[in-house]
């Protein structure tokens, strides 16, 4: 007779996500995961498969959490400029652990060149972020906030690139003021 699970899967997945976020994929061992998640090694394998599969599920969870928070903030925004300011502010300081950077960006840098699964996930997640930026920029162009001189998709690529760069340098001791200055200049550059 099969034993019932002695843990809540979503809770232990969140714990794994936080450990991968803090340490990265390579530095996180199965022993680290078992200890941090508070489950037996056999339970980890039975529930999540191997370390790689667990990692990909953790990245998906992170993406869902961030996407939900960003969508809610954009929905509350009264203008496209306010929506962009919310996103860059969130990416700079709104995440729970800004010193650890962004799990997606960190994992892309660490693994995408040699891990096809992570590369594909990165491409999907980055495409979704660019689409969010594109939608906001189109909104701003229609309302006269942003320049119509450039295609919204191209501007979205630019803004997304700035956002990824901000998430990378936010891991350093650079000041929030400087990060916000960079973000605000990028928004000013697309303003009408």
Feature tags:
Tetracycline Repressor, domain 2, single chain, 192 residues, mainly alpha, 9 helices
Describe the structure.
The chain is an all-alpha fold and 192 residues long. The chain has a domain of 131 residues: Tetracycline Repressor, domain 2. Helices cover 73% and strands 0% of the residues. It has nine helices and no strands. Helix 6 packs across helix 7. The longest helix is centred in the C-terminal third of the chain and has 27 residues. The model has no long low-confidence stretch (mean pLDDT 91).
CATH fold group of one domain: Tetracycline Repressor, domain 2
Query: Beta-strand level of the residues, as a percent range?
Result: under 5%
CATH superfamily annotation of one domain: Tetracycline Repressor, domain 2
Per DSSP, the total helix count is 9
The description of the largest β-sheet is:
none
Unreliable spans are none
* Fraction of helical residues: over 70%
Which assembly state applies to the chains in this document?
single chain
CATH class call of one domain: Mainly Alpha
**What is the CA-CA span between the terminal residues?**
67 Å
CATH architecture label of one domain: Orthogonal Bundle
**Radius of gyration of CA atoms, rounded to a whole number:** 19 Å
Question: What is the mean predicted local confidence, pLDDT?
Answer: 91
Using the alpha-carbon principal axes, give the shape: elongated
Instruction: Summarize the helix and strand pattern as letters.
Output: HHHHHHHHH
Structural class: mainly alpha
Number of strand elements = 0
């Amino acid at each position: 007779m099969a034993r019932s699970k002695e843990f809540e899967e979503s809770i232990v997945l969140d714990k794994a996500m936080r450990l991968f976020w803090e340490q990265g994929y390579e530095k996180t061992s199965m022993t680290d995961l078992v200890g941090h998640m508070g489950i037996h090694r056999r339970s980890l394998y039975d529930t999540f498969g191997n370390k790689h599969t667990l990692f990909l599920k953790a990245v998906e969870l992170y993406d869902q959490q961030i996407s939900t928070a960003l969508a809610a903030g954009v929905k509350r925004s009264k203008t496209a400029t306010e929506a962009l300011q919310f996103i860059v502010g969130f990416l700079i300081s709104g995440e729970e652990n800004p010193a650890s950077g962004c799990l997606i960006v960190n994992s892309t840098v660490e693994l995408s060149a040699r891990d096809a699964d992570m590369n594909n996930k990165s491409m999907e997640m980055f495409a979704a972020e660019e689409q969010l930026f594109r939608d906001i920029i189109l909104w701003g162009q229609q309302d006269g906030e942003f320049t119509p001189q450039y295609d919204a998709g191209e501007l979205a690529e630019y803004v997304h690139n700035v956002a990824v760069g901000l998430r990378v340098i936010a891991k350093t001791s650079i000041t929030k003021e400087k990060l916000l200055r960079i973000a605000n200049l990028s928004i000013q550059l697309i303003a009408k």
